[in-house]
Amino acid sequence: MLDDFIVRAILAGLGIVIAAAPLGCMVVWRRMAYFSDATAHASILGVALALSFSVSVFLGVLIVSLMMAVLISSLNGRGLAMVTLLSI
């Protein structure tokens, strides 16, 4: 009836929904909706710096994204909302 490809695609889609739905709810409940946007912009900076210094792009993205995460975590306890920190 259904092709094997379609069945596998439906199962993969259901697996992604089961994994992503709780994660998305947690992000919205903790008011961290801008976290993915901030991480994406940090990774673009990592790509630019990696290309400027002729190092691995993966390494540049990893370092800049981790620095951004540590900076946001260290600034989290200062009384500002997470959305404000990520917007800055």
Write the layout of secondary structure elements.
Elements: H1 4-29, H2 35-53, H3 57-75, H4 82-87
Walkthrough of the structure:
This protein is an all-alpha fold and 88 residues long. 80% of the residues lie in helices and 0% in strands. It folds into two domains: 30 residues; 58 residues, no CATH class. It has four helices and no strands. It starts with a helix and ends with a helix. The model has no long low-confidence stretch (mean pLDDT 85).
How can the largest sheet be summarized? none
Give the radius of gyration. 18 Å
Average predicted confidence as pLDDT: 85
Indicate the overall shape. Answer: flat
Number of domains: 2
Report the β-strand fraction as a percent range: under 5%
Fraction of residues in helix: over 70%
User: How far do the termini sit from each other?
Assistant: 53 Å
What is the element string, with H for helices and E for strands?
HHHH
Number of helices: 4
Any key phrases for this structure?
single chain; 88 residues; mainly alpha; 2 domains
